[in-house]
User: Fold this.
Amino acid sequence: MGKTVIDRRPGSGAGRGGFRQAQAWLHTWCGLWFSWLLYAVFLTGTLAVFQEAIGHWMTPEHHAEEAAHEAEQAAAEAAGLASSRGQRLAWGAAFMEKHHQGAEMWEIWPTDAKGGGELKVYWFDQQRQYADAELDTRTGEPLDEHHHGAMRATMGGEHFVHFHYELHAGQAGLWVVGVAGMAMLVALISGVVTHKRIFQDFFTFRGRKGQRSWLDAHNAVAVLTLPFQLMIAYTGIAISAMSFMPVGIWSQYVTAPAARQTFAAELGEPGKPPRLGQAMVVPDLEPFAARGQALIGQPVRAVVVDHPGDGAARVGIYGWNSDANADKRLSPNTGMAMFSAASGELLQLRMPGQAEGGGASLAQSVMGGLHMVKFGGWPMKWLYFLCGLAGTAMMATGAILFVVKRRSKHMGEFGSATAAVYRLIEGLNVAAVAGLGVACIGYLWANRLLPLELPQRAQWELGVFFGLWLAALLHGLLRAPAKAWLEQMALLAALCLLLPVLNAVTVGDHWPAQLLRGDWESAGVELVAWAFGLAAVWACRVLWRRRALVAGNAASSAANNVQVGA
Amino acid sequence: MSSWQASAYALALAFAGMTALAFAMERHHEQLTGEREIPRRRGQLLRLLGSLLLAAAALPSVGGWGATVGVVAWLGWISVGSLVAVLWIAAAPRWAARAAVALAPLALWGWWWA
Assistant:
């Protein structure tokens, strides 16, 4: 083979030139190769902030049912017919005793924070999966699975949550996103080093200047929201620290699956006693609930019985966080009081916002809270949404800047394949930025358009999401970039702006009705879709003008050539 | 004070503070006044005012959410406020200055009376 040609241009390649050039190299390539994945993680993670609202919009049959249920509840309470918590706990225990004898754990959720709502029971089935049943709050009889009527099978907003941290690919996906998160931290730090004029250009944005504008936008969204971006990347990794750094656990618990369970039990349920083997009837749970409520100062959310039927049984009382609790605490932990079922002795007490297992556990809990914005109410969710969009824009502008820089100046990084690689990157940009947007809004369209009785319906909705994304990738790779951008942006705009029309046609719900019943979650989803749609329209306008401009230039230069030729 | 009000006040103060800091810089001072040179006292005054307004944005944040969540909210609204400042100054520097001058006292007044 021929000699390797050594690239002697200054400032290209790792470790070439000074420290700053090396960091610039790192920022460019680490940023570029991860930008598409990180863009997807950021956009879906940003949407995941409003997972409940999206889930609410995606289950329209639920709205009427919820309203009817509330009215029924209110009527029952007014007539003095509502079942008490004690009654509900007794029903829950009787159900478990009768239908799931031998379960290691009973978990009864008697009421909502206001003392009404549903009565639900959870346990672990044979496969150690969480199983649940809902009981009638008037009779204590189990309700049929389909008592909700024809529901729309959907993952709702959960799709965005799961996709953004594990790409619907389980542990493998978690690792991929974890590595991307690390790459983001590397890109953030190297980006700050690379950015020579970070303070001089702090407030600078120069529009309509091509590459300059893209760089200004990239710098502005990144630098101004840097604390948020560092925090969200770091806490995102820290949440799964035990998966990413398993050696500490291995060293203490060996690597067998059973040992992992021991670890999980010791971490999550410290001081859980072993079974005694002596039979003991589960006592009346209401006195425990009342004592627990008094100790933690929160209404009862769940009553958990470990080893029911055994002499070593214990009863845990968990609280509901009120809005005031959730507003002012970074840790989402609720209060918890644990009693011995036999003696009634208090075994363990956790006040709201505290964590068992000392400072490390509390720090972990706060990291999770910080990432998932369980605190601070709606304004905080909006703050995270805006900062998340800034992060999404940081990825998009970075990836586009890479291409824009090279449109005017071929840099030859990939030898003879450079042009083909640039073309590939352009296609990936279109599919990642515009295509994912189309896939996300298409997921909402699928929710309204797929027939209700379709088997595996929730999976089909995901199928539409991934199918649209794949189609966008093929379109982006096969079509000329300028056309691909324009067409996908136009599709995105149409899907976003027509979402309220789709909802009105398929379900009969619309803005006036939503606002009249005070349903801000449904209205919010459609208004945000409109905001995205208008942004896409604006992008289309810019792209259209540029196309006209490029066409005009090409025509005039062709005319010049003809003159020269003549 | 509801957390919506707290957010509005914190955002307004963060925006006003960042705008003041921006106009203490030659490039943006020129956008506003047409003069490249900033009188030294004016630059110092704008910097001091901007810092004070950013610090003041902590008041509604901590008031609305308590010390721990309040600090997170404060940092977050400063980021959003600075994005608003950058966009507004780029689009219409004079109107950005007017808005900052109007919003800062309104937010302080609102916080004081809440």
